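Working notes for the structural subgroup meeting. M.R. asked for a predicted model of this chain before we commit to crystallization trials. I am recording the input and output together here so anyone reviewing the notebook later can reproduce the run.

Input as submitted:
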Amino acid sequence: PVAMFMYAIGLSPLTNMTCHGLSSDVRAVFFADDGTGCGSLNKLFDWWNLILAMGPRLGYYPNAEKSWLIVKEKHIDNAKEIFSNAGVNISSEGTKHLGAVLGKRQHMEKFLADKVENGLKN
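Returned structure, recorded in token form:
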């Protein structure tokens, strides 16, 4: 617990820069080492690249394979084009996020049904 607290404090320059400074066009929050941003695709791409550039200097190593971009169906092709070389997962359905779920209502309902069927262990 103390180590995560210290890690979060160590990341405060990154969170300040990406939440309030250079990427202020993206609404962003961090919970320990989990960052979440909301904004236009181009601004999110800039935000992602800022995190990639600044994070390692502060001991934060973003993992594209574990990162998700959730977009409306009408933006999926544009998202895939903009983030084509980023390596992040892109979905218009949704994904799990910090133990909850983001996305379409059908995705949330399936997520909850699976939780009820399999218990809260997953």
